[in-house]
C-alpha cells in the first residue's frame, strides 16, 4: 500500500487491500472513523509534538473520511487520562504516545479496549501484541548492518559498546543478527565513560599485545641469504663461527612487517559525542584499520556525519532521505519550516491509519499487518507480530572528509534481500 505525500491535497492514496471483518464495533453510518493521537502539546517536547500533529493533519486532512482526535499526553492529568478520554470518545486506534514510559502506561488501556496502539517510541522492548513501536529501532539498524556486511564477505563480528541500556540492547541484537546469518557469536566488550576503560577495552578486544608480538617476532627473525653461484648452498646452513654467541641484533633501520589485523573484520560501535571521539582515538592507538575492519554504527551518526572523517569507510543504516523530499516540500508550504524525522513517522503512521480507516474491514490487526507493508515517506515498513516493525533502510558510508553517501539503497520491498 502506497502512502503518498506528493499529491496536491496531501491526501494519502491507497492501493491494495484485504483483511478480515473488523473485530471492533463499526462506526455509525455516515460518521467518520476517529483516529486518536497522544502527543506532547505542553511541556518541554511541545514544539516536537506540534510538528508531529501538523504532519498527521497533512496525512488526514479535513474531508478525508476519518478525523484526528489529538490529545495532550503531557497535560496535568497525565497520559493515561488522555488515553481513557480518547477511548471513551470512540477513537478506533491510538497513535502515540511519544516516550517509552508513556507507551507502557497506555498499552494496558488500549489492549483492554481492543484497539491498536502505534507508539512513536524507538524502544523495541515496548512492543507487544496490539502495540507496535513505530520509531527507528536498534533492532532494525543492526539487522540491516549485519546483513549488508555479511553479504560483502565479513565473517567475524565484534562490538565495543557503552555499558548502558542502549549498549546492552545493541549487543543483544548483534548476537541475534549474527545467529540469523549463520555466523559465529560476536566478541562483545562494554566500556565505561573514562578514558582508561576505553583504552583498556579496545586493547583487549583487538588482541593488540599478541599482534604486537607477531610484528616484533617478524622483525627479529633473520632472513636467510639466497644461494649464489659461488656458494650454491645457503650460508645459513653452515654452523656459526661461535655457537655460543647471542643472535645478531637486527639493523636499526630494519622495516617491520605489516601490522596484523585484529581478530574481527566488522566492529559495531554505539557511542556519540565526546565519548565517540575517545573511541576513535582508541581505534587508532590499537591499529584497528578501516582497510581491514568495517566499522558499523548507529543512525544517530547521520546528524553529525560531516565531523566523522576519522571514521571514513564506516557504515550506518538509516532511511533514505531522498524519499522524504515530497513530504518536506509539502510541510514547508503549509507550515514554513522543515519537519523533523519524527514528523515523518507521525505522517506515515497517520496516513496508514487514515487509509485503512476508509476500508470496510476497518482497523484490525490483520489489516495493519499486511505482509507487503506500506510505502511511506521514510521508505517501506511493515507491522509484524509481537509489536515488531520492520523497515527498509539504506546503508550510508562516511567519506574521507566526513559526510555520508548511500552505498546500498534501501530495498524497494521487504521481501527483497539487501545487497
From TrEMBL:
Please list the residue ranges that the record marks as compositionally biased, kind Pro residues.
237-250
The similarity comment for this entry is: Belongs to the leucine-binding protein family.
The record, for SUPFAM superfamilies, names:
Periplasmic binding protein-like I
Q: Write the protein's name.
A: Leucine-binding protein domain-containing protein
CDD domains recorded:
PBP1_YraM_LppC_lipoprotein-like
Pfam families for this protein:
Peripla_BP_6 (PF13458)
Tell me where in this chain the Leucine-binding protein domain is found. 32-195
User: Native species of this protein?
Assistant: Neoasaia chiangmaiensis
Show the InterPro entries listed in the entry.
Answer: BCAA_transport, Leu-bd, Peripla_BP_I
Q: Which ranges are annotated Polar residues under compositional bias?
A: 1-14
Which stretches does the entry tag as region Disordered? 1-31, 213-260
* Compositional bias segments (type: Low complexity): 217-227
Tell me which UniProt keywords the record has, alphabetically.
Amino-acid transport, Signal, Transport
GO terms of biological process kind? amino acid transport
Q: Give yes or no: UniProt keyword Signal.
A: yes
The answer to whether keyword Magnesium applies is no
| Top-level division of the source organism's lineage | Bacteria
Amino acid at each position: 500500500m502506497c502512502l503518498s505525500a506528493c499529491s496536491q491535497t496531501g491526501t494519502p492514496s491507497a492501493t491494495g487491500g484485504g483483511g478480515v471483518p473488523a473485530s471492533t464495533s463499526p462506526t455509525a453510518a455516515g460518521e467518520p472513523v476517529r483516529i486518536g493521537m497522544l502527543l506532547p502539546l505542553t511541556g518541554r517536547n511541545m514544539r516536537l509534538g506540534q510538528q508531529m500533529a501538523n504532519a498527521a493533519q497533512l496525512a488526514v486532512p479535513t474531508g478525508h473520511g476519518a478525523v484526528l482526535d489529538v490529545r495532550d499526553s503531557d497535560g496535568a492529568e497525565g497520559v493515561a487520562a488522555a488515553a481513557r478520554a480518547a477511548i471513551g470518545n470512540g477513537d478506533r486506534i491510538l497513535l502515540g504516545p511519544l516516550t517509552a514510559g508513556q507507551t507502557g502506561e497506555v498499552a494496558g488501556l488500549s489492549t483492554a479496549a481492543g484497539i491498536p496502539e502505534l507508539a512513536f517510541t524507538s524502544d523495541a522492548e515496548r512492543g507487544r501484541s496490539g502495540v507496535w513501536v513505530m520509531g527507528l529501532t536498534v533492532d532494525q539498524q543492526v539487522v540491516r548492518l549485519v546483513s549488508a556486511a555479511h553479504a560483502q564477505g565479513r565473517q567475524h563480528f565484534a562490538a565495543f559498546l557503552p555499558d548502558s541500556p542502549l549498549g546492552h540492547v545493541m549487543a543483544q541484537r548483534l548476537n541475534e543478527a549474527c545467529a540469523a546469518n549463520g555466523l559465529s557469536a560476536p566478541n562483545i566488550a562494554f566500556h565505561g565513560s573514562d578514558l582508561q576503560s576505553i583504552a583498556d577495552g579496545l586493547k583487549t578486544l583487538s588482541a593488540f599485545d599478541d599482534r604486537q608480538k607477531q610484528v616484533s617476532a617478524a622483525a627479529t627473525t633473520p632472513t636467510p641469504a639466497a644461494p649464489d653461484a659461488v656458494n650454491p648452498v645457503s650460508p645459513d646452513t653452515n654452523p656459526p663461527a661461535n655457537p655460543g654467541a647471542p643472535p645478531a641484533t637486527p639493523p636499526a633501520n630494519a622495516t617491520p612487517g605489516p601490522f596484523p589485523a585484529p581478530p574481527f573484520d566488522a566492529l559495531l560501535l554505539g557511542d556519540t559525542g565526546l565519548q565517540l571521539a575517545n573511541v576513535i582515538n582508541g581505534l587508532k592507538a590499537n591499529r584497528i584499520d578501516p582497510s581491514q575492519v568495517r566499522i558499523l554504527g548507529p543512525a544517530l551518526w547521520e546528524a553529525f556525519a560531516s565531523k566523522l572523517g576519522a571514521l571514513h569507510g564506516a557504515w550506518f543504516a538509516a532511511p533514505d532521505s531522498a524519499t522524504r523530499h515530497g513530504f518536506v516540500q509539502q510541510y514547508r508550504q503549509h507550515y514554513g519550516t522543515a519537519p523533523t524525522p519524527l514528523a515523518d513517522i507521525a505522517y506515515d503512521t497517520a496516513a496508514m491509519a487514515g487509509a485503512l480507516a476508509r476500508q470496510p474491514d476497518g482497523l484490525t490487526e490483520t489489516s495493519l499487518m499486511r505482509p507487503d507493508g506500506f510505502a511511506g515517506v521514510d521508505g517501506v515498513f511493515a507491522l509484524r507480530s509481537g509489536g515488531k516493525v520492520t523497515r527498509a533502510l539504506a546503508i550510508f558510508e562516511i567519506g574521507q572528509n566526513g559526510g555520508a553517501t548511500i552505498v546500498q539503497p534501501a530495498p524497494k520491498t521487504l521481501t527483497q534481500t539487501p545487497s
